[in-house]
Amino acid sequence: MLMLRAAAAAPLASFTQSKEAGYRLCVFEELVRIAPVGESAKSLNICRVCHARVLAEHLDKAPIYWPHCPYSEFQKS
Question: Model-level pTM greater than 0.85?
Answer without folding.
Answer: no
